[in-house]
Amino acid sequence: MSGFTRHRRSGHALATFTAFEADLLRSLASQLIELLRNEAAAPETQDPLEALLDFSGPTRAPEDPVLLRLFPTAYPSDDEAAAEFRRYTETDLRNGKAAGAAAIIDTLEEAGLDDQPEDGMFIDVELDQQLTLTWMRSFTDMRLAIATRLGIEDGDEARWHALPDDDPQAQVHDIYEWVGFLQETLVQAAR
After folding, report:
1. How many CB atoms lie within 10 A of CB 2?
2. If DSSP codes are grouped into helix, strand and coil, which group holds residue 15?
3. Where are the domains of the chain?
């Protein structure tokens, strides 16, 4: 497992993934897109003027804890202001996060990842500055999603390291740490 490095001439971020690693990243990105699209971000009412101006975002906080973590309430002590803020921002934020995850999938597939990755196959990716930022943001979203689902908290590392290797939660926690490693090396490569 290697992370990202910086190309000396172009300044682009480079990484080589095994077919398994690339497929895992594609799966994580796909799951993130599915999560963002499944819980409707639709308005409760549709005022004709709002429809004309397309301010049709949701006004209530998401029910899914992961989505609530990705789209926290902006004004916890002011329900009306929070609803208005959510209405004007959440749809675009969801679309942006989904587009970022889709960019990871596109990059991996353009680099040669197909539907049936073969053992021993390697996928080389090269990220320009814009794609580097997109991947960084998507890595953050993936890590927030995993951390929320698992209940990861600051300072609970001993809990996770005490789990046996064959525990499914330990395995997902390993993926969480791996994505963090990738994000850290990508940040280093972008400097």
Report:
1. 13
2. strand
3. 5-190
| Residue-level pLDDT at 39 | 62
Backbone angles phi, psi at 4, to 5 degrees: -90, 145
Which DSSP letter does residue 128 get?
Answer: -
> Which residues does residue 37 pair with via DSSP β-bridges, in sequence order?
none
Structure tokens at 119: 């053992």
Query: What's the whole-model pTM score?
Result: 0.87
Q: What is the DSSP string of 146-169?
A: HHHHHT--TT-HHHHHHS-TT-HH
- Give the three-class secondary structure for 119: coil
In degrees rounded to 5, what are phi and psi of residue 122? -125, 145
Is the CB of residue 190 less than 8 Å from the CB of residue 3? Answer: no
pLDDT at residue number 59: 85
The low-confidence residues of the chain, meaning pLDDT below 50, are 41-45, 51-52
C-alpha to C-alpha distance for 168 and 176, rounded to whole angstroms: 12
3-state secondary structure 43-64: CCCCCHHHHHHCCCCCCCCCCC
Interatomic CA distance for residues 121 and 117, integer angstroms:
7
Average pLDDT, the chain: 90
From the list 129, 150, 142, 67, the residue with the least C-alpha distance to 101 is: 142
The two structure tokens encoding residue 52: 């004309």
Q: What element of type H or E holds 81?
A: helix 79-110
